[in-house]
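User
New here, explain this?
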Amino acid sequence: MLRVQEIYKRFGGLEALKGVSLILRSGEILALLGPNGAGKTTLLKIMLGLLLPERGNVLLVEGERARPPQGHEFGVLLEGSRNLYMNLSLLENALYFGGIRGLSPRSIRPRFEGWLERFNLSDRLHAPLASLSRGMQQKGALALALALDPRFLLLDEPTLGLDPVSRREFEKIILGLREEGWGIFLTSHDLVTVERVSDRVAFIRQGAILKEGKTRALLSERAREGYVLKFREPIGQQVAELDPRFSPEAPDRMIFLGSWDELMPLLSGLKREVIEVSRGVPSLETLFMDLVGRGK
């Protein structure tokens, strides 16, 4: 497993990370969630050895042994495929980055072509990256990351800009890799995808971890005696302003975190037609807003 221990990082007067600790195990997907500027990218760079922390360390734990990981032990997919050259073909990218890693063309090419075949991209081997769709670019970048034979995958906004079909396809790939035993560290603002694929989530704000745990357990814990209210028309923020126990789920839905006896007297004051009330667990977006967006 990969262990991040008490990481502190400062840039001048800005304390970017304040004792961040996380564990990523093989065969699981851990998502780090937070607003822009929370410290996610800084932590990624420290994990990769691109930045040095003031205090703390990153360790690869193997049985009784623990050591700092090497850069080649990570497969990295950056936001918008920024770790590939757009004017080169997929094969040229693979040969170039494989060469940087010390891998011969005879070694890297068959591995890369094997992953392309799995991702249905074999016919695009010689196509310039810029000629491919966003979804194909992301799959090509992931194929290269895997072909370099890493121990863990670090994915930064992997579904950014993907259409719904490509996003679902990418989710399926990620889940398949997890079943094969890959440890996957994911940062994303796509909370719908994170909710579907993650085993555990950690929420970070202003460089500090607010809460961490199994995704489903955190959602169930937050639900308590929750109720989902569906309205006939979009409701804006008016309902949430009535009582802090209301949280937006969608333009026409709210979740109420409380008991039925607490909800009943509030219904008449909503001044919006409620067409359905049901028991429900809040979404990851609601949990994110409660923990991070509103600073709770």
The radius of gyration is 22 Å. The chain has a mean pLDDT of 88. The chain has ten helices and 14 strands. The longest helix spans residues 164-179.
